[in-house]
Amino acid sequence: MRKTLFNHYKNFLPITSKTPEVTLGEGFTPLVRSNNLSEKYKCEMFFKLEGCNPTASFKDRGMFLAVSKAIENGKDKIICASTGNTSASAAAYGARYNLETIVIIPSGKIALGKLLQAMAYGAKIISINGNFDQALNAVREISDSLNLEIVNSINPFRIEGQMTGAFEIIDELGNNPDFQFMPVGNAGNISSYYKGYSAYKADNKIREFPRLLGIQAEKSAPLVDNKIIEYPQTIASAIRIGNPASSSLAKEAISETNGQFLKVSDKEIIQAQSILAKEEGLFCEPASASSLAGFFKYIKSNNDYKGKKIVFILTGNGLKDPEVAEKYLKSEILQTSSKIQDISNAITSGKSKGFFSKFF
Ligand code: F0G
């Protein structure tokens, strides 16, 4: 039988004999060693492919546990606010375990693939004229009176389930990486990794923390700018968040690991997304690519990364956001007749691969 996060990491999670096993096959995602970029940048780069989870984002690591605990506590309805991935994940687990799922999303700001997932899994979708932060406030206000279980990362079980990402990295590398670059939106995931590494440190599985680098988008960077952003903007819609719920734990994560918050522009995000796809064969969504964009920013003014082990968390699959890909990553299609000679001419015509043609 395939191992599950529920069984494999039971001792590190709040699982008791009363907790029902919930799984869609989440976790144990590939940690892929860089094939081209490592050599170029003189360090050992690894990419954690969280897009390989059942709903194609890291959210499933926390959702299995949040849903498991919701069932244990007799709940039959779950609710979340979302920039897309949480809603897709909640809807999938809700469908499988017969829980009504309600998702509140910022109107027009959800990547198409994620919205279609929530629809396909049969969630009740409420789209508001407002941003993620307002949607999350609404969820906080409504949930008690309607007896709904919140499955956003303000649910502590989400944070604990997502610690498994850190466990897997250590179990695979055998020690701590030196750096970890990851996107930060509502700041739940960086808090989870910090808690996960802390748990493994307490268990003597690692001696040191990796330095955590939390990357935000330039106009949605409340943790870099140290203020709430009322109207956050970015092409990386997953991290378009102005008032992160887990700010204080995320700040602790940065200070305790000698890390840093950095911000990157939309252009840098798209460049990194394209580089990951074209140089490593890894197609992640824009928010995920911000981790590599953050690395490029970091190395402009530091060289302590050389020769070091660096992990990048690629949080979601690139197919989730076809609109961004279509706009910025599209390359030319060579149209020919069906004649062998024409096809052959097209193959040898010397056209190069498309390269974020429209943005720049
Ligand atoms: N990457 C992706 C692909 C995400 O979907 C998110 C968050 C993040 C990074 C940031 O993680 O919020 O824990 O700091 N998505 C949430 C959602 C907000 O609703 O799907 P975070």
Helix and strand arrangement:
Elements (H helix, E strand, L loop, with lengths): L4 H4 L22 E3 L3 H5 L2 E6 L9 H14 L4 E5 L3 H12 L3 E7 L5 H9 L3 E5 L3 H11 L6 E2 L5 H7 L1 H10 L5 E5 L4 H15 L8 E7 L4 H4 L21 H10 L3 E5 L1 H15 L5 H16 L7 E6 L7 H8 L10 H8 L13
Parallel strand pairs: 2-10, 3-4, 3-6, 4-5, 7-8, 7-10, 8-9
Antiparallel strand pairs: 1-2
Helix pairs in contact: 3-4, 3-7, 4-5, 7-9, 8-9, 9-11, 12-13
Q: Mind explaining what this structure looks like?
A:
This protein is α/β, with parallel strands linked by helices and 360 residues long. The chain is 41% helix and 14% strand. The longest helix has 16 residues, at 286-301. Ligand F0G binds at residues 57, 82-86, 153, 183-189, 238-239, 285, 287-288, 315-316. Ligand F0G is lined by residues 57, 82-86, 153, 183-189, 238-239, 285, 287-288, 315-316.
State the gist of this model.
With 360 residues, the chain is α/β, with parallel strands linked by helices.
Features:
6-stranded mixed β-sheet; 15 helices; binds ligand F0G; alpha/beta; globular; 4-stranded parallel β-sheet; 10 strands; 360 residues; single chain
How many helices? The count is: 15
**Biggest sheet, spatial arrangement of strands:** 1-2-10-7-8-9
Class based on secondary structure composition and strand pairing: alpha/beta
Assembly annotation: single chain
